[in-house]
Amino acid sequence: MAENGARRIRLGMVGGGTGAFIGYVHRIAARIDGDYDLVAGALSSRPEVAKESGENLGLAEDRIYTSYEEMARAEAARPDGIEAVAIVTPNHMHYGPAKAFLEAGIHVICDKPITSTIEDARALAQVQPKNGAKFLLTHNYTGYPLVRQARELVASGALGTIRVVQVEYPQDWLTEATGEENKQAAWRTDPARSGAGGCIGDIGTHAYNLARFVTGLRTEAVSADLDSFVPGRQLDDNVHIMLRFEGGAKGMLWASQVAVGNENGLQLRVYGDKGGLEWRQDNPNYMWFTEFGKPKQLLTRGGSISVPPAASMNVRIPSGHPEGYLEAFATLYSQFAAVIRGEGQDYEALLPSLADGVEGMQFIMASVKSSQNDAKWTRFSEV
Amino acid sequence: MAENGARRIRLGMVGGGTGAFIGYVHRIAARIDGDYDLVAGALSSRPEVAKESGENLGLAEDRIYTSYEEMARAEAARPDGIEAVAIVTPNHMHYGPAKAFLEAGIHVICDKPITSTIEDARALAQVQPKNGAKFLLTHNYTGYPLVRQARELVASGALGTIRVVQVEYPQDWLTEATGEENKQAAWRTDPARSGAGGCIGDIGTHAYNLARFVTGLRTEAVSADLDSFVPGRQLDDNVHIMLRFEGGAKGMLWASQVAVGNENGLQLRVYGDKGGLEWRQDNPNYMWFTEFGKPKQLLTRGGSISVPPAASMNVRIPSGHPEGYLEAFATLYSQFAAVIRGEGQDYEALLPSLADGVEGMQFIMASVKSSQNDAKWTRFSEV
Amino acid sequence: MAENGARRIRLGMVGGGTGAFIGYVHRIAARIDGDYDLVAGALSSRPEVAKESGENLGLAEDRIYTSYEEMARAEAARPDGIEAVAIVTPNHMHYGPAKAFLEAGIHVICDKPITSTIEDARALAQVQPKNGAKFLLTHNYTGYPLVRQARELVASGALGTIRVVQVEYPQDWLTEATGEENKQAAWRTDPARSGAGGCIGDIGTHAYNLARFVTGLRTEAVSADLDSFVPGRQLDDNVHIMLRFEGGAKGMLWASQVAVGNENGLQLRVYGDKGGLEWRQDNPNYMWFTEFGKPKQLLTRGGSISVPPAASMNVRIPSGHPEGYLEAFATLYSQFAAVIRGEGQDYEALLPSLADGVEGMQFIMASVKSSQNDAKWTRFSEV
Amino acid sequence: MAENGARRIRLGMVGGGTGAFIGYVHRIAARIDGDYDLVAGALSSRPEVAKESGENLGLAEDRIYTSYEEMARAEAARPDGIEAVAIVTPNHMHYGPAKAFLEAGIHVICDKPITSTIEDARALAQVQPKNGAKFLLTHNYTGYPLVRQARELVASGALGTIRVVQVEYPQDWLTEATGEENKQAAWRTDPARSGAGGCIGDIGTHAYNLARFVTGLRTEAVSADLDSFVPGRQLDDNVHIMLRFEGGAKGMLWASQVAVGNENGLQLRVYGDKGGLEWRQDNPNYMWFTEFGKPKQLLTRGGSISVPPAASMNVRIPSGHPEGYLEAFATLYSQFAAVIRGEGQDYEALLPSLADGVEGMQFIMASVKSSQNDAKWTRFSEV
User: Fold this and answer.
1) Which of A160-174, C45-59, D172-186 has the lowest mean pLDDT?
2) Ramachandran class of C67: left when φ > 0, alpha when ψ lies in -120 to 50, beta otherwise
3) C276/chain B closest Cα distance in angstroms
């Protein structure tokens, strides 16, 4: 049972077999707060991997599936069937399972980006979920306590009218060419599995979503210059974008997988006419908050603050004891569990949704189109 | 089941009822890697709190106890009884349960410091565990991947002969007087529940243990100046200690609960005749490593390194994605689970043990005695 | 006399009267290494200010001028006349004095940007200096020791082929509207005195020049989005630019005077296919250097380094003792003194020149033009 | 002339010939603000070095001396004789010149520590300066603007009653044995030239003085453990000290020349019952100031502040543009010039004095004595 006495949600998983990275992350996230029990899985399309992975995770034999369609059908029919499913396959394998489970009345937790094509994303948005099944897109950075605090600070007017948004996500792991043996790299650099965006889909969307989540600003148009620096690479590995927001704010977004010396340097900086905010993912328990004309303040996760703490943040341990990526991820899981149980009204508007997923695909496609047109300003409505 | 297919350990808990901090932390730590199922508890000595807490955690009614003695007896008698117990009570309530469970053949996971008196610690060391029951002391900072790396770097000779060790643990939460309503503060500042040491027992031992774990140095004597700065406080809230190690290395240890602006600033710096190391808990995914005459290198958890990565570190997610306090804690839990299953030979020497607990009490008592004698150099053998 | 026994250069100054900021900085820069004696000045066009300022600085009465033309004429005629002049007036007052002194055979040290219009810059480039008089443009950040080191690292191939350049210069001092009483702000936000660029001319050129100096990359085109966020402001106060360099490298440049919480946050990051560099002006004695696949190294000014130290850096005091802005500025002054004395061959190619000034104006004008054309890619040759 | 129109002070120098480090620093410090003209020197006791060094610095032939006695006599007799002298010799050569110049009525600027023996220090304190000649001890760190701010914050009560002072000065340049060819190391590790303290005299006194300057606390007793880790070294290279201050505050001081990875890591942390301060020399334009229960504030040199800026700080350039070691040093020089001119009443109490020099020697000798007595608490009155 969860810490607060709430019952655990029965969870299934599609993808995430032995050796996969993000499935493992989802499982930890599901365990941290004790809100889920993993009881079924179509962990791989290869039967032997599905079987071995399922056994390792302690799944009952009859709930180890090799096809998500079968899993959706069978689980929906069981009285003790799964209530939610985590979809952790490569991008091009999101749409099918998401549709199947939503139509089976099973809540969907889906890794980002939502699909590999915008057509799929739009089609998914048209699906009629049975029994009000909900959808969570795991833009996990939105679960960080201080990201929630940032959002509430902006919403409260503490920064005034937002003028400038600088967001970036540099990595360096794709600095050199990689082969098929690097499983993580292989599908991410393959248009057939990843979609039209490489770096922009993998991490650019995270950066975009983070800026969007914190500021609430809606994008008017993007001007993008996408590059593939590594010879032979088919998808972009460096992304330069200028953003124009409705209302006049401006932004820059940089994402890169070839920025040597950066591991996962996601950083957001927001400036308004009254104040500024600066936050980095690699030391996420700290955030700079400056009121114009006053000294910079270092806000800490759960620590002293001169404004009300964010109502929506989940702080597990005292300030100064670092929480990290997995706890932020877990917050999405536990708040979605509350939504599933009908107790999460306050969270529902905060959790990344199917609409955010469609917007993410618009961002990707508009950027790709802009880049193909010499960085011409491109509206989301044009893709 | 655990990620690797290993079966889950059946776990009980003593203390940790609703509202307690460290019990909650232990439960998350036990969940993260999926190596335990919490199935029994004596969560409070107050029956109604024990019942409510147990129900909230989903324990079966007949496994919610109000006495640890009864729990040890009953669980040892069940075929599906707990295999391990987490003791998360205040210090003076460690000895009794630890003895009872060890003698019942149940593995013990015990919060630090091991007891509230050195007599209790020594008595516990004399207990004959039934069926080889093991003991884990949760000096959780030793679970941080880079702390493991630090230990291996020292052991490898990369720093040469160690000369100087600077360790500190400043906090500020006890800067002002607190009342009984602050539950965390109340027992920690009460000699009857905490023992002879306040700050030194609560966080000084963590700092000492960290230095000991990383350097392997044995202490020759301490010279301590302990203070209670807050009027009316009965135990120390600031600790200044000079250390002499066997072989000639020297150290300083500072722990404080009145250092305004510090949350949990645990920091270790180690210098040898060939190199130096610097690590901070509040940003634990980074560590400075300097070879004399070369530029400082920033080692990252799981990232690039010019020496072999620590064999004993548990890295769950890619470098640049921060792990934190809970993951370090979970590493102790999961590696202890491996020990329980008979697969953890490599870990056993690393996990904080009963002997470390006795040494921690020696450290506390020698420091208290030194301070009472005008900071006279005091050997552990004198207490 | 200078430290090395070289004779001091006789220096004059145009602008920089009482209350001016940058003239004061130039004077300190000229004093630090003892290479100059300030002996004449047209410190203000207002006679009483010129007189008072000159007296305060100890100038002989007959060498306090109120007109730069007169000063150029008179000093050129004196046997002990000035050998060099520092021009520290607002931008629109650079061209006249620079031309006059060069044609009088007096070396010119000129603050940036070189002029307020590109026509003036080009005209200045056509001036025939008498007796080989030289020109120094004080892009002072190029004098930082680690900026020199960065340049040499790039030139040495330590970073491989450069792919991505991220440069930024955020400030916040113009977050709110300012009046004429803020002297520094007044002329910088006035097109008549500043030229067509506000923020881009004041600090954007510094950022551009820094990237250019370190990487050696030539710009192919810019796509710029310039804004004036403060109501009523005539010139830009926020600058977003994407850069395309010859050879395929890409860049982003952000300059802002409305980024609350930033004082002078000039930062350069350069990434190649072998390595990366990161440097910030606000803590300029440190620079990150990463070779792909190895830990980040923290290079320090004058400290340990795994590659040869920069031949062109001027390190006055031991590493760990910080040098700053004034020392970097002084390095330009002292190396220009060496050039004047005929001893500075090695420095001449490093010191920002009249050609750099013209390029800076091209950068400003191309960016302004691009911004006026909806961020259309604009070549320097188009302005 | 100085910037403010004040006349320049005629300065001489004892020591500081070609190749010396600290003399060069003093000369830059004297030049930065334009308050001095160096016109005479006994730069070396070796005639040829004295001559070459003097010529390089442009001294008139008849003002290049090889004996400080002769220099004191001759300069005192000249109508244009020096008004102040900078003594920059090794420690054992401070007393003689200081006495000679004070008795000749010439102001003395003396490097620290004041002498090599406490007897010399006390004798110097007994000297009767002619014509009210003043004495400045160059504890240069007290010139940093934020150190001045720290002092004023403490004095204003912003931190409340001070409880804990942590000061440290780690370096690593003496990690390995050095020979006579390392001129800086040679005299500092030689008791005949340095006195009874090695590391403690060279940098421990700086740390002590800094703590003393900022907090105003008077020392009751020290307990010291001094070590020479490098084989064959005669003086201490690592210093561990516990401090007891009058009124009950406690402190720790660590100084080391064998802490690999530290260049000049001077750091001061002060905690009171209302607030805390933290400052580091290697990034000196920033200081943490925390009021208990509020977020940490990052104060910047000359930047926004929630309390009045320090009246005694000298800020030359805008916040965000770093000033450094040389500017701090220069502030002592320029404020001493004001004292000499009779305009520096406000500064006189701030500038490190002969009394501070005697106290510094007491600190050294009490620490050495304590260390020789097994770290016995030792009062300054006992040495």
Assistant:
1) D172-186
2) beta
3) 14
